[in-house]
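User: Working on a comparison across species. This one is Fe/B12 periplasmic-binding domain-containing protein from Subtercola boreus. Can you predict its structure so I can line it up against the others?
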Amino acid sequence: MKHSRALRRSALILAPVLALAALSGCSSASTSDAGAAGTSNAAASGEWSYTDDTGKTVTLDHQPENVASYADYALGLLSYGIDPVAIFGRVDVASDERFAPYDISKTAIVGNSYGEIDLEKLAETAPDLIITGIYPTDREGTLDLTGPLYGLADTEQQAQLEKIAPVVAIEVGGKGIDVINSLNRLSESLGASADTVAAAKTKYDAAAADLTAATAENPIEITQMYADADGIYVTKTADEPETELYASLGVTFTNKNPDGYYYWDIYSWENAGQVMSGDVLLVNVEGFQKDDLLAQATFASDKALVAGQIHPWNQAALDYASQAAHMTELASIIRDSKKL
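Assistant: Here's the predicted structure for Fe/B12 periplasmic-binding domain-containing protein from Subtercola boreus:
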């Protein structure tokens, strides 16, 4: 079976990197003061300082104007009117439906596969700051600061990025609302207005209330999963910030073994019958879909699969706008489904 961390990341394809000169006018320093994470400061002189979720402090002589970002966090920036100069992602950015509401025609797409980043093209955009993420290695929230950040192939590639511009990370673990708030703090430090964030929160709050109402109207069990030739991987509710968020709003997820291995509850196809309790299947878009699952003899009789209550599911970015849309979609699925 695959390791849970490897599953969250797509297969890593290592590419040669280019030696790039560091840009002037910036500096970074590490701090062990975890309590300072997520803070920023802009002095009267124009100096900008931000402490990210790893405790690393980046200081520039000006507020960053050119920002490059991993796709998941670029979505949040775009929702607040901040246009990244470059985006790199896990899948093809141009066909990623999550970007449909935004005009990214003038944004350089510098990576369309996990760990593959065109460093020369990225450098040409002259970013002041690069944003990516970091996932905990366990449910206690341990951050591995010796390995590469999320979206990067390895520490060598990360070092090359840091020669182009300082890199900050958003922690994607624990409570979903904490991840959203981390993105909000960073966005506001980059110039997002408080009014814009507040307006997004209003829509988010309305969607959250509607999702809670939908679960009360139709209290069904939802299995959120990824499947491939090796078996079924069911997301552990408390270990994924998005499912943690939805559970806090009343959604019931299949969660048979909340302890033990982090993030995934793993079943071989021989043991698939142990997880066939959900009324609805939310199936990760990067794995097996309906026809693939029907071809698995040990899973073909799953009640949700037989009833056609199966939906391709692409996890949304953890920002107000993305989550408002995703919660609205989930509320509709819940209302349209039957208790089996």
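For your comparison, note: The domain at 4-174 is CATH 3.40.50.1980 (Rossmann fold).

User: Helpful, thanks.
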